[in-house]
Design brief:
Blueprint lengths: L1 E6 L7 E3 L6 E3 L3 E11 L9 E15 L3 E14 L4 E14 L1 E3 L2 E14 L4 E15 L3 E12 L6 E11 L3
Antiparallel strand pairs: 1-4, 2-3, 4-5, 5-6, 6-7, 7-9, 8-9, 9-10, 10-11, 11-12
Length: 173
């Protein structure tokens, strides 16, 4: 569960499609987001891993040439991990580049991002994640996203992780 608030105007104006309509919305330069997440392991390892998390993040969105959008995000995760939860926190920085291409009454938004994680449990930057993918608006309330992820994590048994992700976004007004 999360909540967003956006404000401010960028030096250049960027418009994005709004829920698959033929109108666009002005992209604000700043966005803050906060929320709560809960996670746990499934399958053979059910119950081995649990996590409760509060997070807060701030985004700055900067239009650059040819309607390309550069976004910076700084996020803090306050975490309680494990069966006997221990408190820790992470500070994450992400840079992302994206561009929207209108396709009929919909749009395609390819993107690439890189994110570094600093973790209080290890007192170091222990994880770097690279993601490339695209989002497609589909219908008035849905978007589909697919991406390929590479993650290097110095502190886990699986140092190099590769993943293919498919995500369904549902929009509420």
């Amino acid at each position: 569960m999360q909540a967003d608030y956006k404000w401010g105007h960028a030096n250049r104006t960027v418009y994005r499609r709004l829920m698959n309509e033929n109108r666009a919305q002005h992209m604000n330069a700043w966005l803050v987001r906060g929320g709560v997440m809960e996670g746990w392991s499934l399958g053979e390892r059910a119950g081995e891993y649990t996590e409760d998390m509060l997070y807060a993040e701030i985004h700055e969105r900067i239009p650059i040439f040819e309607d390309v959008l550069l976004s910076h995000r700084i996020r803090t995760d306050f975490r309680w991990v494990g069966q006997a939860p221990q408190f820790s926190y992470r500070i994450r920085y992400r840079a992302m580049v994206e561009r929207e291409f209108p396709v009929g009454s919909s749009s395609l938004v390819p993107y690439v991002n890189v994110e570094a994680y600093w973790d209080s449990r290890y007192l170091t930057f222990n994880r770097v994640r690279l993601i490339g993918g695209a989002t497609v608006l589909w219908g008035p309330r849905f978007a589909y996203e697919g991406n390929i992820t590479y993650q290097h994590d110095a502190e886990y048994a699986t140092t190099n992780l590769y993943a293919v992700n498919i995500i369904l976004h549902v929009f509420f007004e």
